[in-house]
Design a protein that fits this description.
By secondary structure, this protein is α+β, with helices and mostly antiparallel strands. The protein contains 4 helices and 2 strands; from the N terminus they run ααββαα. A two-stranded antiparallel sheet has the order 1-2. The longest helix has 14 residues, at about 30-40. The chain is globular and about 40 Å long. The N and C termini lie far apart (about 50 Å).
Length: about 120
């Protein structure tokens, strides 16, 4: 796939409003945890979190680096660009190491069954 000259468009799924309303990442800690989980899902053996000061609200930054395989242009176009895709439901293991992927919070995670009353 020629990623330099390819156009792609978001393709939202029907469960998008529920996913965005109920399952959205609720705070910075959860967001950082999700980035590290993404590194694990990408078969990373190393993930580095770097805090760049000043560490005060509204200032500084946080960087997450990993040595995972990343996404191919096809995965970006066919999975990532399809909001609320059931991809993780269809592929519950990582590509290289066959790790069970923990991703349950992202918009691509499969819906959870309703709890019994």
């Amino acid at each position: 796939m020629d990623s330099e000259n390819t156009q792609t468009f978001l393709r939202p799924r029907a469960r998008l409003m529920s996913t965005l309303g109920e399952d959205l990442i609720i705070n910075e800690r959860v967001a950082l945890t999700e980035l590290v989980k993404n590194a694990y899902d990408a078969d990373a053996s190393l993930a580095v979190i770097r805090f760049n000061g000043p560490l005060e609200e509204g200032y500084g930054s946080i960087e997450v680096w990993d040595d995972g395989h990343g996404m191919s242009p096809e995965t970006v176009q066919d999975t990532w660009m399809e909001i609320a895709t059931p991809f993780r439901h269809r592929a519950p293991r990582s590509e290289q190491f066959g790790r069970r992927v923990p991703g349950a919070k992202g918009a691509g995670a499969s819906p959870q069954p309703a709890s019994a009353p």
